[in-house]
DNA sequence: CACAATTGCATGAAAAGTTATGAATCAGGA
DNA sequence: TCCTGATTCATAACTTTTCATGCAATTGTG
């Protein structure tokens, strides 16, 4: 057992240090939506990432497995979208997961260009406890909120996501 | 000038494809806060990242420069916190920025372990237009919201960030 | 003051990610 | 059918990030 890093703040299994305090007041970034979203994602997930890593699973691998527990048999590119990876990166993560026997690639018989990704029983056995850890973490993190507040936040985020996707779809001007 | 990828949806200067639609309804990840935050950050920033890259600046470099435009002369570790990098990664980004003459490292005279990072005039000249691009992007992205809605979202995010930092600080229950 | 512990940063080696491209397959006309 | 263009995924070459560690400076302790 490693000697337990002395007095580290939590959420740094990757040596990542979480900000003690954000940027100074009045700074550009402090009011910049893209920064707030990135910071929120970063600090909110720091602890769960640390816990996942402690199990020996990488974060990229965890994200893919979590998606596959939800919906199995996606094509590579759709899984990449869902896991927020570009396609070549996902291909390499899949290589690693396949090497561990956690996923399996199967050719699509209808469209033989396509490869469908399936989680194996071993993969599911690996992933399910991680999902439990994630659920427990979420419960801890949101313990200070009332249920309707949580719902409000999630609705707002989904709305922002929907609008962002809409913006990104519009024809590249010119 | 490169032949401009055909018909790409916006926000993929890095070959990154932005989801057409999130995960399926009822999926675990669809309701999982960490995922929503990551997805929101991802899709919201896709387009601005694409624009920044088109200028020839990398995203990591942009994040550091944006921070330095806000507050110059931070130490390496504090700048790393602000830019959401771990320390070795920031050190290497700084190497690249220094090689381009955009930043400068100066030893702290009080504490000679410390290195203070300063943006150079060339760095500022490089960064300021990028900040303008970012501001324009933010205005576009949030054009559909009323000002008080935007404020509400930002307040909620800052609150979530504050609470997350607080959670991360508590002694590791063990 | 001497010495152990800590802090701040850099760095080498290994791992992972990105970019550009290619091979295979499919789809839509002429 | 044959050809052109698009789609899906993998991969090679290159770049970046990570992990572990080392060195130097500072702090705390007796």
Q: Can you describe this structure?
A:
Chain A is mainly alpha-helical and 174 residues long. Chain A has six helices and three strands. The first copy, chain A, has helices spanning 33-54, 59-70, 76-83, 87-99, 121-141, 147-169; strands at 74-75, 103-107, 115-119. The first copy, chain A, has a three-stranded antiparallel sheet with strand order 1-3-2. In chain A, strand 2 and strand 3 form a beta hairpin. In chain A, helix 3 (76-83) crosses helix 4 (87-99). The termini of chain A are far apart. Mean pLDDT of chain A is 87; it is low at 1-13. Chains A and B meet through helix 1, helix 2, helix 3, helix 5 and helix 6 of A and helix 1, helix 2, helix 3, helix 5 and helix 6 of B. The structure holds a DNA duplex (30 and 30 nucleotides).
Briefly say what this structure is.
The structure is a homodimer of 174-residue chains. Chain A has 174 residues and is mostly helical.
Task: Considering the chains and any ligands shown, give keywords for the structure.
DNA-binding, disordered N terminus, 174 residues, homodimer, mainly alpha, three-stranded antiparallel sheet, globular, 7% strand
Q: What would the principal axes of the Cα set say about the shape of chain A?
A: globular
Mean pLDDT of chain A: 87
Low confidence ranges of chain A = 1-13
Strand % of chain A is 5-15%
- One letter per element, helices H and strands E, the order of chain A comes to HHEHHEEHH
First-last Cα distance of chain A: 59 Å
Total beta-strand segments of chain A: 3
Oligomer: homodimer
Q: If you compute it from the alpha carbons, what radius of gyration of chain A comes out, rounded to the nearest whole angstrom?
A: 19 Å
- What order do the strands of the largest sheet of chain A run in, or round the barrel if closed? 1-3-2
């Amino acid at each position: 057992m490693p000697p337990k890093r002395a007095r580290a703040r939590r959420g740094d299994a990757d040596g990542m240090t979480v900000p003690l305090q954000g940027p100074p007041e009045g700074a550009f970034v402090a009011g910049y939506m893209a920064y707030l979203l990135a910071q929120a994602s970063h600090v909110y997930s720091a602890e769960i990432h640390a816990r996942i890593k402690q199990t020996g699973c990488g974060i990229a691998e965890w994200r893919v497995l979590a998606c596959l527990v939800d919906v199995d048999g996606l094509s590579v590119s759709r899984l990449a979208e869902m896991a927020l990876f570009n396609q070549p990166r996902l291909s390499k993560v899949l290589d690693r997961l396949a090497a561990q026997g956690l996923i399996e690639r199967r050719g699509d018989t209808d469209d033989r260009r396509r490869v469908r990704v399936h989680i194996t029983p071993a993969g599911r056995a690996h992933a399910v406890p991680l999902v439990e850890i994630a659920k427990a973490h979420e419960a801890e993190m949101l313990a200070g909120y009332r249920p309707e507040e949580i719902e409000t936040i999630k609705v707002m985020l989904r709305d922002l996501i929907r609008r962002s996707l809409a913006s990104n779809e519009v024809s590249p001007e010119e």
